[in-house]
Amino acid sequence: MAKIKATLISERITSNSIEAQNLFATNRFGEKIGEKILYSLPEALYLVQDKKMEIVSNQNKILTQNEILKKFERIDKKFKTKYFVFKDLRKKGYIVKTALKFGAEFRVYEKGKKISESHSKWILFPVSENKQMTWQDFSAKNRIAHSTKKNLLIAIVDEEGDVSYYEIKWIKIQ
């Protein structure tokens, strides 16, 4: 398969190539916006590292992985934490999408589920092990998950980039 040629303009990575359309159809990478596929920052770096994509600047210069990482970290200070979680889940076979409209970082679909036929099971918040989370933060995240009828998934990323997951569910005690 030929590499997807994607363009980075400001904070958006898009492609209208046949390869982008095919990868969207088969593996659900990106979001279809009209004739283009829009990629999240973690998706784009994942595809670059997997040698399925190259990203070019608006001057049509192919960006190196190092240049991409630096740009993405300038755009999003928490990029590395989010990327470790995205990469880990994708390698395990989960579909991971942005969840900004839900007030979360990601939404995660169960393995084998089709996005077009099902809803995500989890709302996911990646957290660095060096950052403190207050009970108010935790409660707010839990309420977002509950109000969207999803389970809360907290992903804690350690210094080595390893990820531990904690699922929080509401239960009704009778």
SSE layout:
Elements: E1 4-9, E2 12-15, H1 18-27, E3 31-33, E4 36-39, H2 41-49, E5 53-56, H3 65-75, H4 79-91, E6 95-98, E7 106-109, E8 122-128, H5 135-147, E9 151-157, E10 163-168
Parallel strand pairs: 1-5, 8-9
Antiparallel strand pairs: 1-2, 2-4, 3-4, 6-7, 7-8, 9-10
Offer a concise description of the structure.
The chain is globular and about 60 Å long.
Please tally the β strands and state the result.
10
Round the mean pLDDT to the nearest integer and report it. 92
Order of helices and strands: EEHEEHEHHEEEHEE
Please report which band the strand proportion falls in: under 5%, 5-15%, 15-25%, 25-35%, 35-45% or over 45%.
25-35%
Could you please describe the fold and organization of this structure?
Strand 3 and strand 4 (36-39) form a beta hairpin. The chain has five helices and ten strands; from the N terminus they run ββαββαβααβββαββ. The protein folds into two domains: 4-75, MutS, DNA mismatch repair protein, domain I (3-Layer(aba) Sandwich), CATH 3.40.1170.20; 79-168, 3-Layer(aba) Sandwich (Trna Endonuclease, Chain: A, domain 1). The model has no long low-confidence stretch (mean pLDDT 92). It is globular. Helix 2 (41-49) crosses helix 4. The strands form two sheets. It has a five-stranded mixed sheet with strand order 3-4-2-1-5. It has helices at residues 18-27, 41-49, 65-75, 79-91, 135-147; strands at 4-9, 12-15, 31-33, 36-39, 53-56, 95-98, 106-109, 122-128, 151-157, 163-168. It starts with a strand and ends in a 6-residue tail after the last strand.
